[in-house]
Amino acid sequence: MKATVLAHPNIALVKYWGKRDDALILPHQSSLSLTLAPLSVTTTVEFGAASDQVEINGHTAKGSERDRVLRVLEAVRGEAGGKLGPAKMVSRGDFPASAGLASSAAGFAALAVAAREAAGLKADPKVASMLARLGSGSACRSVQGGFCEWRRGERADGTDSYAVQRFDAKHWPELRMVVAILNRDEKEVKSRDGMKHTVDTSPYYAAWVKDAEAEVPRAVEILQRKDLQALGELAERNAWRMHSTAFAADPPLCYMNPATLGLIQHLREQRKKGMPVWFTLDAGPNPVLLTDAAHEVAAEALARACGAVDVIRCVPGGDAELKGEHLF
Ligand code: DP6
């Protein structure tokens, strides 16, 4: 009745930006991401408590944060046939929320896998991915490691909208992601609200959906041949296009700040001098640099020279796991 699971966050190379169904968290387009180690969130779920309890990073969760967790627990109780009572969930991440990397992605992935284990259900990455999706869309891509593709699916009930692993973490061990923390402030507009505002008001939104969907198979093909330059170029243009749809929203939405642009400019100059480094950017000011093992130290130095207050160097991460034990 109790299980503890560790999961890693992920960074999208082709981003998810906009829902066709807000309640079921169904995206307009497919997306593709890379799981990030060593960063992780560890979550314990135990059924049999007196009432539902949700603790995240030492605090009792309230409001929508609590509701999202309860929604996942409720779905597991349903899957288990309604025989399970209230649960206690305790979750802790080992990286700062200010990193701008959604700890919710790793958190909901760990929760989905842990809750199903605690309920005695058979480990299944597809079912766990759909369950994690109910907490946060990007979480469906953190159930498995390596490179995961979230297929948008076609069905209205969401039963074909989940992430599949395209390549595992061992496929490209030299790949590096360097998180450049330029600003620790909490972002003004959360991804959930920003993407909804973009869907509702950006005249460029339809073009974004069409383009991003077409980029996913290209990204898979590039990953297959491990072409860093092609991947970097694809990740950059996809990030620019996501941000462009947001700039065009009404009122406009801008997640970048002057330091973000300064770093991007500097990165271009370094690239002209021969350094293999590209960026991607989620809904916040902190870029993630894409490079290889031979250049990760130089990429960190570049980020610090551009004002990064902290830098986290990441490698491709593995599947969500039951404390040291592989499930899938
Ligand atoms: C820019 O998954 O946090 O990071 O589904 O509303 O919880 P909800 O949103 P969330 O959005 C992630 C947006 C992104 C791009 C991405 O990770 O694909």
Automatic annotation (TrEMBL):
Domain Mvd1 C-terminal intervals: 178-296
Keyword Ubl conjugation annotated: no
Pfam families: MDD_C, MVD-like_N
Top EC class of this enzyme: lyase
Keyword list, A-Z: ATP-binding, Lipid biosynthesis, Lipid metabolism, Lyase, Nucleotide-binding
Gene Ontology MF terms: ATP binding; diphosphomevalonate decarboxylase activity
InterPro entries recorded: GHMP_kinase_C_sf, Mev_decarb, Mev_diP_decarb, MVD-like_N, Mvd1_C, Ribosomal_Su5_D2-typ_SF, Ribsml_uS5_D2-typ_fold_subgr
Gene Ontology CC: cytosol
EC number: 4.1.1.33
Gene Ontology biological-process entries: isopentenyl diphosphate biosynthetic process, mevalonate pathway
Diphosphomevalonate decarboxylase-like N-terminal domain sequence ranges: 7-163
Similarity comment: family membership: Belongs to the diphosphomevalonate decarboxylase family.
Protein name, UniProt field: diphosphomevalonate decarboxylase
Organism of provenance: Hyalangium minutum
